[in-house]
Design a protein that fits this description.
Blueprint: H1 2-19, E1 54-57, E2 63-67, E3 70-74, E4 79-82, E5 95-100, E6 106-110, E7 113-118, E8 121-125, E9 136-142, E10 145-150, E11 155-159, E12 162-165, E13 177-180, E14 186-190, E15 193-197, E16 202-204, H2 208-211, E17 219-220, E18 226-227
Antiparallel strand pairs: 1-2, 2-3, 3-4, 5-6, 6-7, 7-8, 9-10, 10-11, 11-12, 13-14, 14-15, 15-16, 17-18
Length: about 230
């Protein structure tokens, strides 16, 4: 399961390199004719490895990267690495996915479980808080509703400081792509099923026959609609 994530990781780090300069405190190189400046950071600069699995920016300006050797915080000059050796609440150093919710909480999915950073405090999410998946495939959020889907086919809704697992949707159950629409309704897509949770059951969409034919991925458009 980790190999597909690794193939996408280097691309994420390239995106970070191209967009990070407005945050940097160090002097910029002399610009050429290009409007944009690109730099790259690797293990020699303090990264735990030369690729990233996910990236978010918190309101205080820090960039956070997920890698398979730790969670990394970058202030434009220095990398700070968080792993189980210095942050016991992190279940694993292998970071799969990140999400920053509207309240400022940093959700961190690892190879062995889930943790959330609230301010400077870390909280581990295990079965006692409702997390029973392996690791998070997608995060989606709208109007205070947060949906998490796992690679082992489970769907969760965040409820304050706990997670509520919804009934298993129909389909192959090999990992759904989740989406929260503008009304707060949770949608999932996977081979064999495309539909939404109506509060009591999974309702199949009238478009399911088109969407589930060689389904690949789903994501949110800029206007909040669902792209499949």
């Amino acid at each position: 399961m980790a190999e597909p994530l690794r193939r996408a990781a280097a691309f994420l780090l390239l995106i970070a390199s191209a967009t990070i300069y407005p945050l940097l405190a160090r002097p910029l190189p002399v610009p050429g004719d290009s409007e944009y400046l690109i730099d790259a950071w690797e293990t020699d600069d303090g990264m735990p490895e030369n690729s990233a699995t996910a990236m978010v920016q918190t309101p205080d300006g820090y960039l956070w990267f997920g890698t398979f050797n730790g969670l990394v915080r970058f202030d434009g000059i220095k990398f700070t690495v968080f792993d189980p050796s210095n942050t016991p609440e992190l279940p694993s150093a292998g970071i799969v996915n990140l999400h920053l919710d509207v309240s400022g909480r940093l959700w961190v999915s690892t190879m062995n479980g889930l943790a959330v950073r609230v301010g400077s405090k870390w909280v581990r999410y295990g079965p006692e808080r409702g997390w029973t998946g392996n690791f998070v495939r997608t995060f989606s959020e709208h109007g205070g509703v947060i949906c998490l889907t796992s690679f082992d086919g489970k769907v969760f809704r965040a409820d304050n400081d706990r997670l509520m697992q919804l009934p298993m949707p129909p389909g192959e159950n090999s990992g759904y792509a989740g989406h929260v629409d503008r009304t707060g309704r949770i949608w999932v897509a996977q081979n064999g099923f495309f539909g939404s949770w109506d509060g009591q059951r999974w309702a199949t969409s009238a478009l399911a026959g088109l969407v589930t034919n060689r389904f690949n991925w789903a994501g949110q458009a800029r206007d909040g609609s669902l792209l499949v």
